[in-house]
Design a protein that fits this description.
This protein has 3 helices and 19 strands. It is mainly beta and about 260 residues long. The chain is globular and about 50 Å long.
Length: about 260
């Protein structure tokens, strides 16, 4: 092999090694990749994945955080209809909806198949959009979040499993009747320049506010940035059913949990 051939082979080898290293080393500002565990959920949660979402006008959804809107049909108790909802505008009062509409199975295999607009119109929406003011009232429902490692709700001290709280508006989600609450917390490495955590673990803890007891929790890990996205989409579908959405684009990792056994 000539000297030129050796140099070229060495260059190609070094480039290949560099590419592999870039793929293996966590990228601090990459879109967050995550895993989650239902080990401590006691069989209460079902995980759903969706093939794709698009806006009703056909535009692609890129980098958006999809809220899930659920509807129930009177004659189909074993399934729910679901679509994505994008609140927009400075006060989040402008709404755009996604297609397709999906039907998810509540028993058997957690499948998601496409449904029709006509089926949606006949169904009853379970968790309609709330204004910013209404959501603020929900967060302030008897809640005092301590600076350290717990929240106080209805006089009960509720410890968090993570080391840090997320943003104030995303820390606690109380069910409509005030019976249950989800607490959000995380562990991770803090990037002072961006003011954000990256690479760590996140926790959803479901508490009974009558007793102050933790019922179950879901935890996971992520790499990259976007740590806050794991918590901003949590929503109570009914008073005893909550949706947890670690994936901000809601294509995978959408968890629907029934709180009572």
């Amino acid at each position: 092999m000539t000297n030129e051939g050796r140099r070229r082979s060495t260059f190609l080898l070094l480039r290949a090694v560099l590419i592999v290293m870039l793929l293996l080393v966590p990228q601090q500002f990459a879109v967050a990749g995550f895993t989650y565990s239902l080990k401590h959920a006691g069989g209460r949660c079902r995980a759903y994945s969706f093939r794709y979402w698009a806006l009703m006008n056909g535009r692609a959804i890129i980098g958006s955080r999809l809220h899930m809107e659920f509807a129930r049909e009177d004659d189909r108790p074993d399934s729910l209809l679901v679509r994505g909802r994008l609140p927009m505008g400075w006060d989040l009062s402008i709404l755009e909806y996604t297609k397709p509409i999906y039907r998810i199975a509540l028993t058997g295999k957690p499948t998601a198949i496409e449904a029709t607009e006509e089926e949606w119109k006949r169904a009853q929406v379970l968790n309609p959009h709330k204004s910013w003011e209404e959501r603020r009232k929900d967060h302030e429902f008897g809640v005092r979040v301590a600076e350290e490692d717990h929240a106080v709700i209805n006089g009960h001290k509720l410890p968090i499993r993570g080391e840090y709280w997320p943003y104030k508006s995303d820390r606690v989600e109380v069910s409509p009747s005030g019976r249950y609450a989800v607490l959000h917390s995380m562990n991770g490495k803090f990037d002072e320049r961006r003011g954000e955590f990256y690479r760590g673990r996140f926790y959803y803890q479901i508490y009974d506010l009558q007793t102050g007891k933790e019922i179950f929790w879901v935890d996971g890990s992520w790499r990259g940035a976007a740590s806050w996205s794991f918590f901003s989409l949590t929503d109570w579908v009914t008073d005893n059913m909550v949706v947890l959405i670690p994936d901000p684009e809601a294509q995978r990792g959408v968890l629907l949990c029934n709180v009572p056994e």
